[in-house]
Design brief:
heterodimer; A: 958 residues; alpha/beta; Aspartate Aminotransferase, domain 1; seven-stranded mixed beta sheet; globular; B: 123 residues; alpha+beta; six-stranded antiparallel beta sheet; three-stranded antiparallel beta sheet; binds pyridoxal-5'-phosphate
Chain lengths: 958, 123
């Protein structure tokens, strides 16, 4: 038993890697007398916070979990039949325990290092295959942020495919209201005219390039779209269809009706609604349009040994390469949830999924019949699991809500008095009795009148009945016992490096501890089960979490208001820029459309700027890696009245606290511009300086970096934005629930508070660390980075630092000098690190040919030392090539990573030993991580694209 | 390295002239800079392109480059084999044509470099 004042159970001790004694050794190596001195040397005095953060003191894990349990209990979990894209579902326990609650799955990063990510790459390929088969399309991506933004991405994509045929886009009035609102918000800055018109009757004028339909639609009606789509195509108009994967187990897929793009949410495949998220949305299309598709695509390729291997394909579409010409700004997506949805399909298989779909449909048919015996009219000619019920009169309709409330049931309330009822996987016949009873009460009818039908066989008309098989690949046939499934999940998991294996020193990614205690609430029913559109009084617990979190984030950023809506950093960027745009608009300054972006910026910045209808002007960096202030001044002046904003990352993407930051922000303000701060590097600021202090007006916070939300192998994330008071009126609204500011910008996400359920993680993280702990975390993040600098600088050139030699929380090692002398590049070093059991740092961002290392505060000194030992040893291996002791081609680096199969092979022909290949240092032996494949041939994969589960013959024996 | 039978642009395209036609590809230097080429996007036959205009894009695993038209004219043919075998751009850049043009103004060729001039421009 401990109290929160008991030093032994203070969370900060668990969170920060180096122990007090280690700190002194590290400071000595760094050459600073104390941590305070180091911080004074690292962060310019002019921007230091005048006083400590005003946040509660830290508390123990247990105290915090208890607190959250009490708060969560304020949420009231009614049974929700609201539908609108969010449904109750059953997460198979084998997936809950082995995936969602398992750090091997939730801690890895996006699979940039494919050789140590084969497990989740295979899982994502299962997801893509599930989407492709169910939608009847050719290719699919490995997740988008939510269904509404997927629909907006589809609109932008259709415009590209149509090659600028026109600017008009039609949205069916039968799409979900949040989808229509998000699409409208995205259309305006892109210069698209949006018409809400029923495409089954609308005429397509020459300037229409695309339409968005929903199937089954907002009311639940499933209508054959074949004719509408054919009519659109005949007019040269492209068609996107939003759909529901579970419905497609029994309904004809949109692909077979001719759709060009199909989008939707995979939430129903075993991912709880979570009061809005996170869940994985998808986008599928025809092969011909694959290069216009947004988001990550997983593809098959081969490794150097010719064995099948997976990796991310076609990356040249993406923002990190194509910047303002990218297909989208999306970066962090929803990998963990996509994996879960894919596994749900693997576990149930096609027969299981179809059985779930059929049962649900039969239940809906029973409910229809029973309610009709009360005189209700069910309006959907055909439907999957969602009914639209007319109760006869507005007067009668007005009585249903009270009866529903009394029975703790949530329905959808249409404006015309109709009631929507969406059943789901959790629905039972007993639930139907309760629904019938509630209607009986409201309508003054005896439930007995409604009868008690048993579900029978129900058929769909030919137009909408699914005839085609799906998920015929053996992976969807062979894991249907729990034992097989558990082992499959473990097999995949063992191929990947997550934080449970070793440090992941990815610069700009902040791969810190994701505390287990903070993760607990995510899977509590009182957090997970809530539908995002329940009446807010049922979500009082969430409201408290939001309010306290918003207030903490205001305190940390020094800004005045927060929107919790954006689901990723990139989405935060777009939201922030749209807020700035709205601000200028209301001041009558619509001409402000230029965004200054330093050349060192992350690719999402220019990509987001373009999506916000802005023109990107690049600002140069000087030789020290800092923003070239003269160039900035010149460009701010040149664009004067057209200047909308500066987007700047602080500390810089080069890992340096730039001295001139205040001057830079002042310059932009002098010209009437706003300052958008990319908060990816907040881990170097918390408690020591702040966006407000440097002069920013808006910033996003990557909760999946600084605030401990796990990366999930490529998402979920959360990118809330904080704004100064003058921008607060423009924060995003939502049409269904939540924020309603009159001047707010349209929603940027489908759900009012984004991926609400994972906000509990950041909430817990902040509560457990408290003001001091958060500040200490920052100090240690800076200490570990400077420690790596001290230890590795004799071996590798550090590209940028402050004039006094200090770096922020990350630093860049320049590998370009080796290339000429030895032929070794950053990829070789990255792959060789795998042989030592490490995930590579960030390569090729922000400077090609370099390696950006961010150790975070959570790594213990021993791990930092092992990492240094590995890099120093690799430096020696490079030197051997330079000195002519090792071959320029056939060497330890070029052949890395070395698989177990390669090392034990009877034919070993390399000029170095097997031991040097696989056990280069003693510490490696103790915890060897064997990569499951050798170096992957990226070009082969991009030249021979396969983006669904490859035929079994092509797979190697594991 | 750079054959004498053709002209070169500063954007690293080669141009082979014959009659009023030009055949266009990218140079050895360009393919080295790009790395493994995985995709070449070419214009439709019949499209009119101006000198300096983008006529396509070329993608490697890690980079995308725009293809700038070294001369003005109308596209008369595109190399369809490139969609299946983009790797020949790497293995035989100077034998791999991308488009042919019916030239609008053959005198534009005067603005192009010869082999020696192009090599010198690479430094
Ligand atoms: C500097 C910077 N800006 C923006 C982003 C985009 O954030 P997200 O991946 O959450 O969209 C990242 C993350 O990868 C980043 O490092």
């Amino acid at each position: 038993m401990g109290t929160s004042s008991d030093a032994t159970d203070r969370f900060v001790r668990r969170h920060i890697g180096p122990r007090p004694a280690d700190r002194d050794r590290m400071l000595e190596a760094v050459g600073a007398e104390s941590l305070d001195v180091l911080i004074d040397q690292t962060i310019p005095k002019s921007i230091r916070l005048p006083r400590p953060l005003e946040l509660p003191e830290g508390e123990s894990e247990q105290t915090c979990v208890d607190r959250l349990r009490r708060i969560a209990a304020k949420n009231r979990c009614y049974r929700s039949y609201i539908g609108m894209g969010y449904y109750g579902c059953i997460t198979p326990a084998v997936i809950l325990r082995n995936v969602l609650e398992n750090p091997s799955w939730y801690t890895p990063y996006t699979p940039y290092q494919a050789e140590i990510a084969q497990g989740r790459l295979e899982a994502l390929l299962n997801f893509q295959t599930t989407v492709i088969d169910l939608t009847g399309m050719d290719v699919a991506n490995a997740s988008l942020l939510d269904e509404a933004t997927a629909a907006a991405e589809a609109m932008a994509m259709l415009s590209r495919v149509s090659r600028g045929r026109g600017r008009r886009f039609l949205v069916s009035p039968h799409c979900f209201p949040q989808t229509r609102a998000v699409v409208a918000g995205r259309a305006e800055p892109l210069g698209f005219e949006l018409d809400v018109a029923d495409p089954s009757t609308a005429t397509f004028s020459d300037d229409v390039f695309g339409v968005l339909l929903q199937y089954p639609d907002d009311s639940g009606a499933a209508t054959d779209l074949t004719e509408t789509i054919a009519r659109a195509h005949a007019a040269g108009v492209l068609v996107a269809v939003a759909t529901d994967l579970l419905a497609l187990t029994v309904l004809k897929p949109p692909g077979e009706m001719g759709a060009d793009v199909v989008v939707g949410n995979s939430q129903r495949f075993g991912v709880q609604p979570g009061y809005g998220g996170p869940h994985a949305a998808f986008l599928a299309t025809r092969q011909a349009h694959i290069r216009q598709m947004p988001g990550r695509v997983i593809g098959a390729s081969v490794d150097v040994h010719g064995a099948p291997a997976y990796r991310m394909a076609l990356q040249t579409r993406e923002q990190h390469i194509r910047r303002e010409k990218a297909t989208s700004n999306i970066c962090t997506a929803q990998s963990l949830l996509a994996n879960m949805a894919g596994f749900y399909a693997v576990y149930h298989g096609p027969q299981g999924l179809e059985a779930i779909g059929r049962r649900l449909h039969r239940l809906a048919c029973v409910l229809e019949r029973r309610l009709e015996r009360f005189g209700c009219e069910q309006r959907n000619a055909e439907y999957f699991d969602t009914l639209r019920i007319g109760v006869g009169s507005l007067e009668l309709a007005a009585r249903v809500p009270d009866a529903a409330e009394a029975a703790h049931l949530n329905f959808r309330w249409f404006d015309d008095g109709d009631v929507g009822i969406a059943l789901d996987e959790t629905s039972t016949e007993a639930d139907l009795d309760d629904i019938v009873a509630a209607f009986g009460k409201a309508l003054g009818r005896d439930p007995v009148e409604a009868g008690d039908d048993a579900p029978g066989e129900e058929a769909f008309s030919d137009g909408v009945a699914r005839q085609s098989a799906f998920l015929t690949h053996p992976v969807f046939q062979t894991h249907q016992s729990e034992t097989e499934m558990m082992r499959y999940l473990k097999q995949l998991e063992r191929r990947d490096i997550g934080l449970d294996t070793s440090m992941i020193p990815l610069g700009s990614c902040t791969m810190k501890l994701n505390p287990a205690a903070a993760m607990l609430p995510v899977t509590w029913p009182a957090i997970g089960d809530l539908h995002p559109f329940v009446p807010v009084d049922q979500a009082a617990g969430y409201a408290q979490i939001f309010a306290e979190l918003e207030s903490a984030l205001c305190g940390i950023t020094g800004l005045d208001a927060v929107s919790l809506q954006p689901n990723s950093g990139a989405q935060g960027e777009l939201a922030g820029l749209m807020v700035i745009r709205a601000y200028h608009h209301h001041r009558g300054e619509d001409g402000r459309r230029v965004v200054l972006i330093p050349s060192s910026a992350h690719g999402t910045n220019p990509a987001s700027a373009v999506m916000a209808g802005m023109q990107v002007v690049v600002v140069a960096c000087d030789d020290a890696g800092n923003v070239d202030v003269d160039d900035l001044r010149a460009k701010a002046a040149e664009h004067g009245a057209a200047l909308s904003a500066l987007m700047i990352t602080y500390p810089s993407t080069h890992g340096v606290f730039e001295e001139a930051i205040r001057e830079i922000c002042v310059t932009v303000h002098e010209h009437g511009g706003q300052v958008y701060m990319d908060g990816a590097n907040m881990n170097a600021q918390v408690g020591l300086t702040s966006p407000a202090v440097i002069g920013a007006d808006v910033c996003h916070l990557n909760l999946h970096k600084t605030f401990a939300v796990p990366h999930g192998g490529g998402g979920p994330g959360m990118g809330p934005i904080a704004v100064a008071a003058h921008l607060a009126p423009y924060l995003p609204r939502h049409p269904v629930a939540g924020p309603t500011m009159a001047r707010g910008i349209p929603p940027v996400a489908a759900a009012p508070w984004g991926s609400a359920s994972i906000l509990t993680i950041s909430y817990a993280y902040i509560r457990m660390l408290g003001a001091d702990g958060l500040t200490d975390a920052t100090r240690y993040a800076i200490l570990t980075a400077n420690y790596l600098k001290a230890r590795l600088e004799p071996h590798f050139e550090v590209l940028y630092a402050r004039p006094n030699g200090r770096v922020a929380h990350e630093l860049i090692f320049d590998l370009r000098p080796f290339r000429e002398a030895t032929g070794i590049d950053e990829q070789d070093v990255a792959k060789r690190l795998i042989d030592y059991g490490f995930h590579a740092p960030t390569v090729s961002f922000p400077v090609p040919g370099t390696m950006m290392v961010e150790p975070t505060e959570s790594e213990p000194l021993e791990e930092l030392d092992r990492f240094c030992e590995a890099l120093i040893a690799i430096r020696g291996e490079i030197q051997a090539i330079a000195d002519g002791h090792a071959d320029r081609q056939d060497n330890l680096l070029k052949n890395a990573p070395h698989t177990a199969a390669a090392v034990v092979s009877d034919t070993w022909s390399h000029p170095y030993s097997r031991e040097a290949a696989a056990f280069p240092r003693p510490f490696v032996r103790a915890q060897k991580f064997w990569p499951s494949v050798g170096r992957i041939d990226n070009a082969y994969g991009d030249r021979h694209l396969i983006c669904s589960c490859p035929p079994v013959e092509a797979r190697g024996e594991d | 390295m750079y054959p004498d039978d053709r002209k070169y642009s500063k954007d690293h395209e080669w141009v082979k002239l014959s009659g009023g036609e030009a055949t266009i590809g990218i140079t050895q230097y360009a393919q080295e800079q790009l790395g493994d080429v995985v995709y070449v996007e070419l214009p439709e036959v019949g499209r009119a392109v101006k000198r300096g205009e983008i006529f396509g894009t070329i993608e490697s695993v890690k980079a995308v480059s725009e293809l700038f038209c070294p001369m003005s004219g109308e596209v008369t043919a595109v190399n369809a084999d490139l969609s299946d075998y983009p790797e020949v751009v790497n293995s035989k850049p100077h034998d791999t044509w991308m488009i042919t043009l019916k030239l609008g103004d053959p005198s534009e060729a005067e603005g192009l470099l010869d082999s020696a001039g192009y090599q010198a421009s690479l430094g």
